[in-house]
Amino acid sequence: MKVLLVNHFPLQGSGSGVYVANIAKNLVKKGHSVCIITPENTSNIVDLKNIKLHPVFFKYKEEIEGQQDFNFPCFDPHPRSSLLFNDMTDVQLEQYTDAFRKAIEEEILENKPDIIHSQHIWLISKVALEYDIPVIVTSHGSDIMGYEDWPKFHSVMYEVVEKCKKIIAISNHSKNDIVNIFKENEEKVVVISNGYDEKIFYKEDYDKEQVLKEFKINKKYDKIVCFAGRLVQNKGVDLLLKAAKYYEDENVLTLIVGDGEEYKNLNEMKENLKLKNVIFLGNQNHDTLRKIYNISDVCVVPSRKEAFGLVALESIACGTPVIAANQGGILDFINNSVGILVKQESVLELSNAISKILNNEIKFDSMYLSEYAKNNYRQDLFVDKLINIYKESLI
């Protein structure tokens, strides 16, 4: 089968990008042909073996031939773009859709895909539906946030929901949102959880001090708390910093991995709270992130909204328990054998839960965590379900 994957975001720096890359790699393993159309604003593009990448270039830090004269838009800020869909002019929106229309038409002409799998109930998915090729759409949750915040895009979303063959929801929470908003037949919306790449995220013994030295951290710490994700308001890093005021001592280190528009504000908050052992590491590649998960005692996911929470799954795969806000897709896979759920926005509950893990009041079996993720949530477990949906859509 020839599959054309289309996404609104690059393959790095976004959950949907990781999702697309994981799907593509597993489809190729099963003998299918895959092309990915994705926005890019750098010539340093991730290389996926045996997968064709068709970038649509946008303006950022370098001049690239054929790029749009604006950056790629987002639902909330991406590490490499702060332009929001709602802030685009009508001219930019037209240029944006025309650029992806051109890319899709080129791939249809050259590779003749059997099916188009588009990401998000949004603009590019509407473009993908213009052709006589079955389209399925995965909703990643950020599109639903776009629906709630920006009414002018409602008509686009309703058209996508009506005309596509199937909608994939990445959690039961997402499915409920889609069915309730669009009044769509539940049979059209299928839940297929996000899967993680077990070749990247797994339990392994690392020398903690050596890993920290890679970041020029030479002090020894007994315990490590980590966060990984975009530094945007929705991810709740401010809540973690406020919690650190209670649990931090000279033997506890908090590592924050990621970048985003809240970086400056969060650093100022760190200084105002007089936190001495909180370190911002910026964006890191997956291999480095695996090391951080493995040397950490707990990974914190304090998101205000989280359609799935892939970071939590990656951490569990590395044998590290998770503390997360009790909302969204997190509820599908976090239970008391792999982590702790706390009340949303509750700094006190968050700090208490972190302290209980750091003080060994609550213990987790790291090998069990790793096996739990591997046996239930690795990506290849879900690709067969996806292929079946593809086949059903071709009939």
What order do the helices and strands come in, and which of them pair?
Blueprint: E1 2-6, H1 15-29, E2 33-40, E3 52-57, H2 90-111, E4 115-119, H3 123-128, E5 135-139, H4 142-149, H5 154-163, E6 166-169, H6 172-182, E7 189-191, H7 208-213, E8 223-228, H8 237-247, E9 252-257, H9 263-272, E10 278-282, H10 286-295, E11 298-301, H11 310-317, E12 322-325, E13 339-342, H12 347-358, H13 366-377, H14 380-394
Parallel strand pairs: 1-2, 1-4, 2-3, 4-5, 5-6, 6-7, 8-9, 8-11, 9-10, 11-12, 12-13
Helix pairs in contact: 8-12, 11-13
Mean pLDDT: 95
Any idea what the radius of gyration is? 21 Å
CATH fold title of the largest domain: Rossmann fold
**Helix fraction bin:** 25-40%
How much of the sequence lies in strands comes to: 15-25%
Give the biggest beta sheet.
7 strands, parallel
Strand order of the largest sheet: 3-2-1-4-5-6-7
Would you identify the regions where 5 or more consecutive residues have pLDDT less than 50?
none
CATH class of the largest domain: Alpha Beta
Give a brief outline of the structure:
The protein is α/β, with parallel strands linked by helices and 395 residues long. The protein contains 14 helices and 13 strands. The model has no long low-confidence stretch (mean pLDDT 95).
What does this structure look like?
The protein is an alpha/beta fold. The protein folds into 2 domains: about 1-195 and about 380-395, 3-Layer(aba) Sandwich (Rossmann fold); about 210-375, Rossmann fold (3-Layer(aba) Sandwich). Helix content is about 40%, strand content about 15%. The protein is built from 14 helices and 13 strands. The strands form 2 sheets. It has a 7-stranded parallel beta sheet with strand order 3-2-1-4-5-6-7, sandwiched between helices. The protein starts with a strand and ends with a helix. The mean pLDDT is about 95.
